[in-house]
Amino acid sequence: MADDLSRAGASYQTPEVRAFVEAVHCRETEAMRYAVERTEAEGLPTIQVSAADGRLMQLLLAAVGARTVVEVGTLAGYSGLWLLAGAGPEGRLHTLEANPRHAAVARDVFRRAGVADRVTVHEGPALETLPRLAERGPFDAVFIDADKANYDRYVDWAFSVVRPGGLIACDNAYLFGYLAGRPADEAWDDAAVAAMQRAHRTLAARAVSVCIPTPDGLAVAVV
Ligand code: SAH
Ligand code: DHB
Ligand code: MG
Q: What is the distance between the alpha carbons of residues 168 and 43, in angstroms, rounded to a whole number?
C-alpha cells in the first residue's frame, strides 16, 4: 500500500535515482544525440522533451500500435525521432513547426537520421496547417508540444482526426506550475492557463485520460 508521503504527492525521485533509471531505460540513438547537439549549435532553445519523456512517448505509441503520428511543435526533431521509434519501421510522422529556422534544422536532422522519407515537416503556424492535414487522417496518435495558449484548440483538432483506440498526449501539462493555484504572469498569462485547463477537461470528458507526473506533466488520453 502506498505510504502517506507518496499519497500526498511527495516523490522518492532523487538525482541519483533519476540518473540510474534514465541510463538503463532511456538510451538515445546517435541521431537523437545529434538532434540535441544541433539544437545547441544553432542556438535554438533547448526545450526538447527529456529522454525519459521521449521514451515514454515511444512506449505509449507502441502500446496503441500507432503507425501514423502527428506532432505539433517540431523544434529540431528530437521528440520526432522518439515518436518514429514508437511508430515502428513503417511509421509515418507529420510534424508542424511555425519557425522556418527550426523547420530547416529538423529537416536536416531527419535526413541525417535516414528517416526523411517517413517524415513531413509542415511549416507554418499549426492553426493554419492542421486543417489541411485533416484530409490525410485518420491518425493513430497526436503529440502536442507547441504554443501553450492554443493547446485546447490542438486537442479539439486531435479528437477530430484520431481513430478510436488512438492516443492524444500533451507535454507541459502542468504549464510550468501555472496550471492551477499560482498567479499567471506575462510568460504564462490567463489565456494560456485557461487553454491548458480546457485541454485537460476535454481529454477527461471525451476519453480515458490521465496526467502522468513527469516533471512538467504529460497529459495522455486513449480515444
Ligand atoms: N517537440 C519538440 C520541442 C518543441 S518546442 C521536442 O521535444 O524536441 C515548441 C516548438 O513549437 C518550437 O519549435 C516553436 O517554434 C513551435 N511553435 C510555437 N508556436 C507554434 C505554432 N503556432 N505552430 C507551430 N509550431 C509552433
Ligand atoms: C518551453 C516549451 C516547452 O514545450 C517545454 O517543454 C519547455 C519550455 C518554453 O516555451 O519555454
Ligand atoms: Mg514541451
A: 30
